[in-house]
């Protein structure tokens, strides 16, 4: 394959990663933005989403489409409910103290991981995608007869990968509308800006926190469900995802949804492209270097606002 | 209306308020005075439930505010204009008003009525509904903070140094709103440092010193030069 088609292929792979990453990182960013909690267990909610997708699929045993739709609805709900429980039993008792909650969520990470190992086992298990048509992609050629389209061998993607990208775009747009237009979004933003004043105007801040923590986990779980037909569910899959989410959220600016999405595209695309042309390790090295540069020259992130 | 008895409160181990008594009546402006650090803001926060009362009662028309979860206090009809305004800076003027209305009337029709009524008091806000609250001028921010509190449709209005850092015309505007609210029958509890601003306005003045009651003056008492001099003495001016 020539360079051009190869690049297109890399971009598509990158876009799938960017889509999943944007969903997951916006959950992390939402939780930090509103609650000032750095949720180290966020990757485990992603893993739980993938594992739950497998569980729902094997319990239901219906057709691939029905199984997948059920997983897409049930897994985020179950994981979100677990997160609400963790919030009420652990984080609330720590008064949402920024430092102690970091330690607590590290503990939560290991608890969830070991429970998954005990309950689900060490195997990686696949979930069948609801649809998986191979779509050959055209490429242009400048020949003697002018521009012509042709289908290079090996340049293809699947309908499911395109669906993941489209689903992430729709979900993120919905999230943005929810935050800027709905009454619940207004309450979350008021709580984020000044929790004490939110309380003084009748907002039950602790209930908002519990729901935000649940919603953040549900977003990670959603990302997990979307990725599992491509990647398989494994009890250790949360680690890399967490690292990439942190990278995205730091580059984009903690608490900024727009920044998170832009950074996810940046990291996802460059990861895809560099992995295809060089090695995945180089992609991680460059991403981490980028974080270091952002931290040195623009600590609030590309889109973040300086703390007032 | 508001009856505080033996209130002790503070932050962590250090007590700030040590057995404070205070009353605020409907249709009156009660002014709370005291030196910097006396505990005026802490008292306001204790009424709002933002600082936990360790001892004592905070009774508002028979409801003990100290026993309520903090977010239920505004629903009892308490509007709070905090020191330093504390607006939701990244939200628009309209959204700040919306947050205030959230603690106000439940049904949409009376919400709209309250909103219209409040905005009528502050025409300048009406022209700036889409602007971010953080970009308003100091005077406009104070108007918005007051409007937000009035959206709760309070029977008790708390204002913590609302005229701090404002030019005279703004101070006059805020003062007129306070007088209008008093005449509507609200209990107004005002923290104010400047004696000249207080003398013509207050129906009652309570002075606290180091977290304890020092002295109370009625409007009539303040007209006597001797009492005005004593008040100045408490405040060290
Ligand atoms: N969050 C806090 N944590 C610990 N101590 C506090 C806190 N807020 C206030 N204090 C202390 O409580 C005391 C009373 O403070 P408060 O703000 O109530 O005073 P004030 O009368 O409102 O003063 P000012 O006129 O300067 O506004 C002060 O000694 C202050 O340092
Ligand atoms: Mg004060």
From TrEMBL, chain A:
MF terms in GO: transmembrane transporter activity
Pfam families, sorted: BPD_transp_2
Residues passing through the membrane, by range: 6-33, 45-66, 72-90, 102-121, 160-179, 208-230, 242-267, 274-297
Keyword Cell membrane among record annotations: yes
Subcellular location: Cell membrane
Topology in the lipid bilayer: Multi-pass membrane protein
Keyword terms, alphabetized: Amino-acid transport, Cell membrane, Membrane, Transmembrane, Transmembrane helix, Transport
InterPro entries from the UniProt entry: ABC_transp_permease (IPR001851), BCAA_transport_permease (IPR052157)
CC per GO annotation: plasma membrane
Coiled-coil ranges per UniProt: none
Biological process according to GO: amino acid transport
Family membership noted in the UniProt record: Belongs to the binding-protein-dependent transport system permease family. LivHM subfamily.
Protein name: Branched-chain amino acid ABC transporter permease
Source organism of the structure: Pseudooceanicola spongiae
TrEMBL record, chain B:
GO biological process: L-amino acid transport
Gene3D superfamilies in the record: P-loop containing nucleotide triphosphate hydrolases (3.40.50.300)
UniProt-listed Pfam families: ABC_tran
ABC transporter domain boundaries: 2-235
Keyword ATP-binding assigned: yes
InterPro entries: AAA+_ATPase (IPR003593), ABC_transporter-like_ATP-bd (IPR003439), BCAA_Transport_ATP-bd_LivF (IPR052156), P-loop_NTPase (IPR027417)
PROSITE patterns cross-referenced by the UniProt entry: ABC_TRANSPORTER_2
GO molecular-function term, one example from the UniProt record: ATP binding
Keywords per UniProt: Amino-acid transport, ATP-binding, Nucleotide-binding, Transport
Top-rank lineage group of the source organism: Bacteria
PANTHER family according to UniProt: HIGH-AFFINITY BRANCHED-CHAIN AMINO ACID TRANSPORT ATP-BINDING PROTEIN, HIGH-AFFINITY BRANCHED-CHAIN AMINO ACID TRANSPORT ATP-BINDING PROTEIN LIVF
Similarity annotation: Belongs to the ABC transporter superfamily.
Listed name of the protein: ATP-binding cassette domain-containing protein
């Amino acid at each position: 394959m020539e360079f051009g088609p190869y690049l297109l292929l890399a971009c598509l792979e990158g876009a799938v990663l960017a889509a999943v990453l944007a969903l997951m990182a916006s959950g992390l960013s939402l939780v930090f933005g509103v609650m000032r909690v750095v949720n180290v267990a966020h990757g485990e909610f992603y893993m739980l989403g993938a594992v739950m997708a497998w569980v729902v699929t094997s319990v239901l045993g219906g057709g691939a489409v029905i199984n997948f739709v059920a997983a897409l609805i049930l897994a985020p709900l179950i994981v979100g409910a677990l997160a609400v429980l963790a919030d009420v039993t652990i984080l609330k008792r720590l008064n949402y103290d920024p430092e102690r909650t970091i330690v607590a969520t590290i503990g939560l990470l290991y608890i969830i991981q070991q429970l998954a190992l005990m309950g689900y086992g060490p195997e990686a298990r696949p979930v069948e995608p609801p649809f998986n048509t191979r779509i050959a992609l055209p490429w242009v050629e400048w020949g003697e007869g002018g521009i012509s389209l042709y289908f290079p061998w090996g340049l293809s993607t699947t309908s499911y990968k395109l669906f993941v990208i489209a689903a992430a775009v729709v979900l993120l747009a919905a999230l943005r509308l929810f935050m800027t237009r709905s009454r619940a979004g207004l309450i979350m933003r008021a709580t984020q800006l000044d929790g004490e004043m939110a309380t003084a105007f009748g907002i039950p801040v602790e209930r908002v926190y519990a729901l935000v923590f649940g919603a953040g986990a549900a977003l990670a779980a959603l990302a997990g469900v979307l990725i599992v037909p491509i990647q398989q569910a494994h009890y250790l899959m949360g680690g890399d995802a967490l690292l990439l989410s942190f990278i995205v959220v730091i580059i984009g600016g903690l608490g900024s949804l727009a920044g998170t999405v832009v950074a996810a595209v940046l990291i996802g695309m460059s990861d895809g492209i560099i992995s295809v042309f060089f090695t995945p390790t180089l992609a991680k090295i460059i991403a981490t270097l980028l974080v270091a540069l952002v931290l040195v020259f623009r600590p609030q992130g590309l889109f973040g606002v300086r703390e007032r | 209306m508001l009856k505080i008895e033996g209130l002790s409160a503070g932050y962590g181990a250090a007590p700030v308020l040590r057995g404070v008594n205070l009353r605020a009546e409907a249709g009156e402006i009660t002014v709370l005075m005291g030196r910097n650090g006396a505990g005026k803001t802490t008292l306001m926060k204790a009424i709002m439930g933002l600082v936990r009362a360790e001892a004592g009662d905070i009774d508002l028309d028979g409801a003990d505010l100290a026993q309520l979860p903090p977010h239920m206090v505004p629903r009892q009809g308490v509007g709070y204009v905090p020191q330093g305004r504390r607006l939701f800076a990244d939200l628009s003027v309209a959204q700040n008003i919306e947050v205030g209305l959230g603690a106000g009337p439940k049904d949409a029709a009376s919400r709209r009525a309250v909103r219209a009524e409040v905005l009528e008091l502050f025409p300048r806000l009406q022209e700036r509904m889409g602007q971010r609250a953080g970009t308003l001028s100091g005077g406009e921010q104070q108007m918005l903070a007051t409007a937000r509190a009035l959206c709760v449709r309070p029977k008790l209005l708390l204002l913590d140094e609302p005229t701090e850092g404002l030019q005279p015309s703004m101070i006059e505007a805020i003062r007129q709103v306070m007088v209008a609210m008093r005449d509507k029958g609200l209990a107004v509890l005002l923290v104010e440092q400047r004696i000249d601003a207080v003398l013509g306005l207050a129906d009652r003045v309570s002075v606290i010193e180091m977290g304890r009651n020092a002295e109370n003056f009625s409007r009539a008492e303040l007209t006597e030069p001797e009492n005005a001099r004593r008040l100045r003495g408490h405040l060290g001016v």
